[in-house]
């Protein structure tokens, strides 16, 4: 998206959505499930001929195994998301211009070309309080540390560089904890640039939240959206898919990943759970430990940062398979039924069915699509085209919410039409097999790689 800080932009308006009648979270949870259940029952009724035809070829139990993974469960989850977002009203900020001192941690390895720009964007923040920056040089072989100190001097910000020789983002971040003297700390990736109001909004959300909220995830969008088609496709994944999932989870007070790319944490809470764990998905496991303690994790859509996404398939494959592996790793460490809150039980429990959905999609839907090209419509047929209008309807709802965010921040949504159609029509063809590979990596305990 064309959304990096603009020198001429005005201050964002304080409200995001119009006020409406308040509906308690518990009722929103029940209403959304009722709508999703009704949607799934309609799908079951509509798919009876499909079950019969496919069952005649592979047996009814096998047909149901396939169709449940391809249609019923994904349809239920999508309907739950859309109905929840339609009911969502972000609570107003009680504090709009915080001035508390904060610390930003930037763990990096061989980032000499970008660390200066990242620090420059921090210096442009409209935040009124002191900002301390700790750059953790994780055994770089270039001039990352020198470039960070130079940027601190050039842009008049307080930059401290520490060294951590042991490779791994968790080791780097944990090395910084003894140096943090503020109540709140923000983590930021070295290739991530902040919108000028990002720090103000994420700190304001933390200060406006109940006392049991220990972290707030920011909204991460794509920085290199004018790159190759793969990056332009991911622009819509971040803008519609990932942001909307986080908004859904934040509505039910259980954002499942306070991502290391841009989130704020209570320093005491991080220390209390032992810091970032030695895990491929260190931010996932950390967040689930927060939730397991009965604490809450919010999401702030107005706290926007822009990150570099992979432009080559190899880099994309490694990143997304690592994310999928991190999810399985979190399920190993903290079981959903051990979560103390009903909402987080449900949200983390949804991750149990994701491998099933991705495996069915990879090993059944994709071969079924190939068969359809040769005139065999056992799995993919003309009726499956009905999914397209539903997909467009879902994305239109998600687009509406994100458009409101951009309007408040005075950003512009780029007309990336080719990337949008690639996202709607083909993105899942890549995502499911990549995720399946990540699941297999975790099951067989393959070697872990940070980047």
Automatic annotation (TrEMBL):
The chain crosses the membrane at residues 29-48, 54-73, 346-366, 378-399, 420-440. It holds the Pfam family Glyco_tranf_2_3. The keyword Nucleotide-binding does not apply. Keywords: Glycosyltransferase, Membrane, Transferase, Transmembrane, Transmembrane helix. Belongs to the glycosyltransferase 2 family. It comes from the Bacteria. InterPro entries: Nucleotide-diphossugar_trans. The lineage of its organism: Bacteria, Bacillati, Bacillota, Bacilli, Bacillales. GO terms for molecular function: glycosyltransferase activity. This is Biofilm PGA synthesis N-glycosyltransferase PgaC.
């Amino acid at each position: 998206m064309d959304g990096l800080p603009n020198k001429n932009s005005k201050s964002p308006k304080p409200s995001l959505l119009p006020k409406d009648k308040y509906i308690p979270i518990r009722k929103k949870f029940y209403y959304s499930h009722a709508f999703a259940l009704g949607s799934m029952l309609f799908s079951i009724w509509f798919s009876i001929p499909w079950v019969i035809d496919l069952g005649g070829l592979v047996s009814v139990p096998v047909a149901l195994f396939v169709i449940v993974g391809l249609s019923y469960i994904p349809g239920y989850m999508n309907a739950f998301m859309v109905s929840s977002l339609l009911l969502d009203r972000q609570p107003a900020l009680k504090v709009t211009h915080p001035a508390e001192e904060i610390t930003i941690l930037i763990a990096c390895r061989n980032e000499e070309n970008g660390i200066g720009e990242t620090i420059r964007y921090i210096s442009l923040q409209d935040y009124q309080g002191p900002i301390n920056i700790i750059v953790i040089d994780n055994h770089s072989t270039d001039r990352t540390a020198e470039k960070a100190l130079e940027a601190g001097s050039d842009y008049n910000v307080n930059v401290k560089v520490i060294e951590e020789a042991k490779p791994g983002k968790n080791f780097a971040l944990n090395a910084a904890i003894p140096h943090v003297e503020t109540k709140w700390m923000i983590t930021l990736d070295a290739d991530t640039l902040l919108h000028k109001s990002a720090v103000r909004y994420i700190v304001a959300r933390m200060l406006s939240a109940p006392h049991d909220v220990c972290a707030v995830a920011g909204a991460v969008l794509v920085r290199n959206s004018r790159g190759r088609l793969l990056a332009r496709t991911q622009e819509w994944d971040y803008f519609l898919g990932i942001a909307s999932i986080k908004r859904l989870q934040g509505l039910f007070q259980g954002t499942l990943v306070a991502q290391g790319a841009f989130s704020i944490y209570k320093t005491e809470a991080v220390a209390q759970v032992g810091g970032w764990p030695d895990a491929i998905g260190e931010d996932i496991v950390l967040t689930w430990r927060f939730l397991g303690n009965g604490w809450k994790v919010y999401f702030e859509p107005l706290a926007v940062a822009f990150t570099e996404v992979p432009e080559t398939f190899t880099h994309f494959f490694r990143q997304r398979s690592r994310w999928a592996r991190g999810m399985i790793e979190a399920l190993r460490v903290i079981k959903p039924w051990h979560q103390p809150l009903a909402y987080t039980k449900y949200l983390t429990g949804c991750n149990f069915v994701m491998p099933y959905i991705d495996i069915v999609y990879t090993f059944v839907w994709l071969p079924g699509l190939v068969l359809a090209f040769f005139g065999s419509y056992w799995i993919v047929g003309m009726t499956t085209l009905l999914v397209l209008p539903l997909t467009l309807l879902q994305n239109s709802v998600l687009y509406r919410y994100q458009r409101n965010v951009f309007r408040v921040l005075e950003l512009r949504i780029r007309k990336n039409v080719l990337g949008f159609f690639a996202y709607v029509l083909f993105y899942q063809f890549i995502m499911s097999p990549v995720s399946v590979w990540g699941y297999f990596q975790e099951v067989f305990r393959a070697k872990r790689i940070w980047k």
